[in-house]
Amino acid sequence: MNIRMKRALTLTFAAALMLAMLPSAWLAPSAHAQLFGRDTPKRDVTRLLTGKVLDAGDNPLPNAVVYLTNTHDRSVKTYIVGADGTYRFPALQPAIDYEVYAQFNKRKSHTKTVSQFDNRQQVYIDLKIDAK
Fold first, then answer.
1. For every residue of 89-123, which 3-state class applies, written as one string?
2. For residue 54, what is the enclosing H or E element?
3. How far is CA 90 from the centre of its chain?
4. DSSP secondary-structure letter at 79?
5. Alpha carbon distance 51, 124 (integer Å)
6. Buried-exposed string 37-50: b where 16+ CB fall within 10 A, e elsewhere
7. Which of 54, 51, 85, 92 is nearest to 70 (CA)?
8. What three-state secondary structure class fits 60?
9. What distance in Å separates the CA atoms of residue 85 and residue 87, rounded to the nearest whole number?
10. Of 129 and 132, which is predicted with more confidence?
11. What single-letter DSSP state applies at residue 43?
12. pTM
């Protein structure tokens, strides 16, 4: 085999190898992204805030009103607690701070903050009111 034939054979082999690898080069970034989560659809991750409104003796305060303020746009949601004193605010955005307090018979609890830096998906906060 002369040098020209060896060179032609080598070039043909290299070209065939490159063509064979081309589809895998197209698929590799996609496969890599799927393995490491870049191609997966983003989940709608929200948080849940729950708790109880209690008096000084840790008894529930039915019909107390809980106020939840979005500190980004200052919108307010309210919740009137039931007989067991529990409240629930679902679907809170994790990148926003919230302030929560309760009111009962013209008395108010301390305001608590749900921070965007708190990465819990479920946050539980009891609100105490001195309801003398």
1. EEEECCCCCEEEEEEECCEECCCEEECCCCCCCEE
2. strand 47-54
3. 12
4. E
5. 5
6. eeeeeeeeeebebe
7. 92
8. strand
9. 7
10. 129
11. P
12. 0.67
3-state secondary structure of 37: coil
Rg of the Cα atoms in the chain: 30
Decide if 61 contacts 85 (C-beta within 8 A). Answer: yes
Residue found by looking up tokens 């948080």 in the block: 47
Q: pLDDT-derived band of residue 3, with 50, 70 and 90 as boundaries?
A: confident
Q: How many residues does the chain have?
A: 132
Paired residues of 100 in beta bridges: 68, 112
As a whole number of angstroms, the distance between CA 109 and CA 129 comes to 5
Q: 41 phi and psi, to 5 degrees? A: -65, 145
Q: Which of 53, 55, 72 is nearest to 64 (CA)?
A: 53
How does pLDDT run across 81-103, given as a tens digit for each residue?
999 999 999 999 999 999 999 99
Distance CA 86, CA 48 (A): 13
